[in-house]
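User: Please fill in residues for this 280-position structure.
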């Protein structure tokens, strides 16, 4: 049994009382498969919100369809469960309507990069101040194991029993190519690393793209916990996060890196740019 799953079984009451992060968890228990990495992501988001002392009533979580679409139910905040691939435009509208809110857009690899993939370049170019959490398990889990936009080439799935014929999309490379002002990757088995990335992403004034690698323990027996733990490496501390070209090199490296790839703190957010226009 994975340590993330064990946490949600025994609850670790002493740590909960000490950290207080369950103030950001609703009373509804997650309904994901035992051992799913989404449990760890949920915990890390709650811990980040707690560390930043974000008021629950000032948080709004917007999701699409799929396993990740259930996420707003499990968070003690305002939530909006939208249609397939539509969490980004809804989240954008919410933030533009009320700038004081902390807005999260949540979706899986199918939801965000499949039917909703056309929204990514536009939120990036506008630089609207929301944080996007891409839960990437490289397969369609809710509909029982079909190939998704990030399924590795040649991998056998329930929709491609002889091997996936499509080249997978590269989420980090896409976000950098679209010029997102904050781009990072976390691993569902690294709770502390995720919390650190999430806090930086939430603080960032502009669009934050956070790619989260996680196994699908039920429908993917190839990309397992052990494979992922051994296959991902932290970005070296010498990396210059303001260098977009260097970030792209890391994204295209045959190795897979975890951490902040790129951050542009000088670029105004969409809201800041609008204020500049109105005050001119």
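Assistant: Residues filled in for all 280 positions:
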């Amino acid at each position: 049994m994975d340590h993330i799953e064990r946490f949600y079984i025994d609850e670790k009451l002493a740590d909960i009382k000490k950290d207080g992060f369950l103030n950001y968890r609703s009373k509804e228990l997650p309904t994901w498969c035992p051992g799913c990495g989404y449990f760890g992501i949920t915990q890390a988001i709650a811990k980040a919100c707690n560390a930043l002392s974000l008021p629950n009533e000032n948080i709004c979580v917007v999701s699409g369809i799929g396993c990740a679409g259930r996420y707003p139910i499990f968070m003690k905040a305002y939530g909006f469960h939208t249609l397939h691939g539509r969490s980004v435009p809804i989240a954008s509208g919410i933030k533009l309507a009320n700038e004081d809110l902390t807005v999260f857009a949540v979706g899986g690899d199918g939801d965000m990069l499949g039917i909703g993939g056309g929204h990514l370049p536009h939120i990036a170019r506008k630089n609207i101040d929301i944080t996007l959490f891409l839960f990437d398990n490289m397969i369609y889990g809710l509909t029982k194991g079909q190939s998704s936009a990030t399924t590795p080439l040649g991998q056998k799935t329930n929709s491609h029993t002889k091997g996936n014929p499509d080249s997978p999309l590269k989420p980090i490379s896409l976000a950098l190519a679209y010029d997102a002002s904050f781009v990072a990757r976390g691993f569902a088995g690294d709770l502390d690393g995720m919390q650190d990335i999430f806090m930086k992403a939430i603080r960032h004034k502009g669009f934050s793209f956070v790619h989260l690698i996680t196994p699908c323990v039920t429908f993917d027996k190839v990309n397992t916990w052990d494979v992922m733990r051994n296959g991902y490496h932290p970005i070296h501390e010498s990396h210059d996060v303001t260098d977009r070209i260097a970030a792209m090199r890391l994204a295209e490296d045959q190795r897979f890196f975890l951490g902040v790839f790129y951050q542009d703190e000088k670029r105004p957010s969409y809201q800041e740019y609008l204020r500049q226009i109105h005050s001119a």
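For context: The chain is about 35% helix and 15% strand.
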